[in-house]
UniProtKB/TrEMBL annotation, chains A, B:
GO BP field: methylation; RNA processing
GO cellular component terms listed in the entry, alphabetical order: cytoplasm
Lineage: Bacteria, Pseudomonadati, Pseudomonadota, Alphaproteobacteria, Sphingomonadales
Record's keyword terms, sorted: Methyltransferase, Transferase
CDD domains: SpoU-like_rRNA-MTase (cd18095)
Pfam family, any one: SpoU_methylase
Family listed: Belongs to the class IV-like SAM-binding methyltransferase superfamily. RNA methyltransferase TrmH family.
Domain RNA 2-O ribose methyltransferase substrate binding positions: 32-107
Organism: Allosphingosinicella flava
Protein name: RNA methyltransferase
Amino acid sequence: MPRQITAFSNPLVKQVRGLRDKKNRRREGHFLAEGLRILTEAREEGFLPEILFYAIGQHHPLLDTLISETEAQGGEVIETTPDILHKMSGKDNPQIVLGVYPAFPGGLDSLDRTAANIWIVAQSLRDPGNLGTILRTGDAVGAGGLILIDDCVDPFSVEAVRASMGALFTQRIVQASWEEFVPWLRSGPGQLVGMSLQTDIDYQTPRYESPTFLLVGNEAQGLPEAYEAECDLLVKMPMLGKADSLNAAVATAVMAYEVLNQRRPR
Amino acid sequence: MPRQITAFSNPLVKQVRGLRDKKNRRREGHFLAEGLRILTEAREEGFLPEILFYAIGQHHPLLDTLISETEAQGGEVIETTPDILHKMSGKDNPQIVLGVYPAFPGGLDSLDRTAANIWIVAQSLRDPGNLGTILRTGDAVGAGGLILIDDCVDPFSVEAVRASMGALFTQRIVQASWEEFVPWLRSGPGQLVGMSLQTDIDYQTPRYESPTFLLVGNEAQGLPEAYEAECDLLVKMPMLGKADSLNAAVATAVMAYEVLNQRRPR
């Protein structure tokens, strides 16, 4: 049976709310995801929350499934008020469910690079919306996962989880330094393709090799020179306009679809 | 000579800060843009602010140009503190310049559809980041502008302007109802192409006609059925993953690059 929490002062509410801060997520090894769609996506991928909160009086077949499966695996299910859900998630228009999940462990060595034709590698990505959007694109193009290099925004932030629309649970996520990544990359097959303005090679010209590691740089700075030098190939997208730039998540998607289009049957 | 404002209580500061609210932007017919890069982009497109604020003690050749050209066209230039810039823009890490611009007038009849091969049409787009990102993509693919249908987020919101990275000033922006848009569309050449999950036509199969009007729907709902029925063509992108969706700005970009790629010389 779900227990009820209706007091704002409940210490668990405070603790869960604390997971909106990166340092607390790191220390506790847990993160928040919210919304029936995202939690259902997670469930279908085999991820159930350790604690499931839902709004009192809500009924939905997908919610019922989440509740029974969470309880069956020994998780805790808690009925609460919309106000407390809002307090925990920080969202103005709170979802009716919120789950507390253990963060995914795993370094580069846990990846099987042959499991997918495309891997996305992001360097010092700063915007959680971009990170989540890239995860969602990765899901759509059948990428294996997202490798976060250097000082990227936390993929387990509430904003990134939200923007990923559940793709967080379908994509492998690994964090590594560049110094760790390069030797790992070179220890097996794979082509490192950087998106850059410092090249004349059109992104539709090369035939990409599998697995393709698509490298996207920081939103404001792009890739450091030394990182571009390490790439097997630098390519650029045509830009006809004045601004001469694309949003990082958009550029990644246009590239990823090109790689997918070269390989898919039509 | 620039005048100085260093008091938070200055009524102009309050008025400019008020432009972060849509209802004030509507009433006053002005909006805010911030950052040397975006204001320079605007200047190069012929847009100078009516009021230019900059942080005391800042020197930069691009700032000097903005100051002298703003003064030359009769605009007001005001030196102020970083704290006041922060108060006005709401940004944690305030830019060193902020401009107050008159909102662009113009309805559908002001558009010359033959001026570009691609136009982007967004219906009930809710996220200002998506809107700005779509403007930036429009700039990159050489689109003529963005037609906002029904209840879209305000393109002149601080978040949308920021996400557009200056493309707000390179793209025509028009707001219209669907009932206004359809007769206008049908009064001249143009193919209306909707992005949809309700079709088996792959987005790379058709040869798009010029001008192509790319129609993207609301982030959560997609396009209403009646709107899809009006399209000359519905197409979908391959999605290999579980989530079966793409971010709206990403889907628009992948489509827009396909249209561009079909037409550009290589």
